[in-house]
User: Which sequence fits this backbone?
């Protein structure tokens, strides 16, 4: 598979990488098989996170003996220096490796957190720098869902990569972020190529993304046939047929008005409702194990807050995508109750 240079990291990564969220739903043996099949097919960039429960450990087992064939990226969502250090040591242990190729600040979507990371003598950044000097990590990256913050991350020149969601539904921002990354020589990692499981047409989704040569795309892979299908699309003609173009437009029209970008522009909600979490709940159900989305440490009490919505509509006035938030959080809450009852 063709490789691209991932910005100033100089890592030569395959255009298709591996997203490590869905393997949490599998048994360990199945997960190891899936990761190994991806590597056999040429995938050399694997992304996971401290927060993805068993994902790192399974990846560690899958790459045993083949560590030099792959680049491993993982992340910490902590905003405390000591905790980041703990997360990093745990990742190294779970991945059963001496080094992580790319270590990322996970999900930095607000200015205050970015300021904390970029402040002079920032303790958070120092943990990353020290780990880099010690050879525990090789490169420093960051991930975000919020376009204004992502742009600032790139412009700061403190990160070697940025990860941002990009698919043909949520394309408006990435199309402006990509040239900025190029200008600053920051590697672009595309998360959510299938819109977090909301798109079911891989051919259209990937043919669209193949129009952008300077990024690594990291679909979450749960089944071997999924990566095989993506590789067939990669190896086939990338040009969309007229019919596919038309279908893409139709899906944009249908889904674009119901797809939450998790940018949090709708906040603050006076009832402290975690809007983006509720809005993306259907995608959790598609990609994650029930224990994660029903019993995860951050779940209890959070989903129930949906019932406190007073329908003020302030969130909808702030959402740049005019999403019907009130209706969607109700639907998500109903789905949550249904999943809880059937668990
Ligand atoms: S509801 Fe709208 S503003 Fe809120 S996170 Fe989703 S896309 Fe962003
Ligand atoms: S409509 Fe509901 S969710 Fe939106 S801001 Fe008001 S209380 Fe919060």
Assistant:
């Amino acid at each position: 598979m063709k490789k691209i240079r991932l910005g100033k990291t100089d890592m030569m990564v395959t255009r298709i990488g591996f997203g490590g969220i869905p393997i949490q739903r599998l048994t360990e043996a199945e997960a190891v098989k899936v990761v190994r099949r991806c590597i056999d097919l040429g995938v050399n960039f694997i992304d996971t996170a401290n927060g993805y429960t068993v994902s790192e450990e399974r990846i560690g087992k899958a790459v045993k003996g083949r560590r030099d064939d792959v680049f491993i990226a993982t992340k910490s969502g902590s905003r405390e220096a000591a905790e980041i250090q703990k997360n990093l040591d745990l990742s190294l242990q779970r991945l059963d490796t001496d080094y992580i190729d790319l270590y990322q600040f996970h999900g930095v979507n607000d200015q205050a957190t970015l300021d904390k990371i970029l402040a002079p003598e920032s303790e958070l950044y120092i943990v990353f720098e020290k780990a880099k000097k010690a050879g525990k990590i090789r490169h420093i990256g960051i991930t975000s869902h919020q376009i204004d913050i992502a742009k600032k991350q790139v412009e700061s020149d403190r990160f070697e990569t940025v990860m941002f969601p990009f698919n043909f539904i949520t394309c408006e921002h990435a199309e402006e972020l990509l040239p900025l990354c190029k200008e600053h020589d920051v590697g672009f990692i595309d998360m959510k190529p299938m819109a977090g499981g909301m798109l079911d047409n891989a051919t259209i989704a990937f043919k669209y993304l193949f129009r952008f040569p300077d990024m690594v795309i990291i679909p979450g892979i749960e089944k071997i046939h999924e990566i095989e299908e993506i590789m067939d699309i990669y190896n086939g003609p990338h040009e969309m047929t007229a019919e596919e173009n038309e279908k893409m437009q139709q899906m944009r029209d249908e889904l674009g008005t119901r797809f939450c970008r998790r940018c949090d522009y709708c906040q603050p909600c006076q009832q402290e409702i975690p809007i983006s979490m509720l809005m993306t709940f259907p995608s959790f159900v598609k990609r994650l194990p029930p224990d994660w989305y029903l019993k995860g440490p951050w779940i209890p009490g959070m989903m129930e807050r949906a019932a406190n919505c007073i329908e003020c509509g302030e969130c909808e006035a702030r959402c740049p995508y005019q999403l019907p938030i009130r209706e969607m959080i109700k639907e998500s809450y109903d789905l949550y109750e249904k999943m809880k009852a059937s668990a």
Residues 58 and 198 are 25 Å apart (CA to CA).
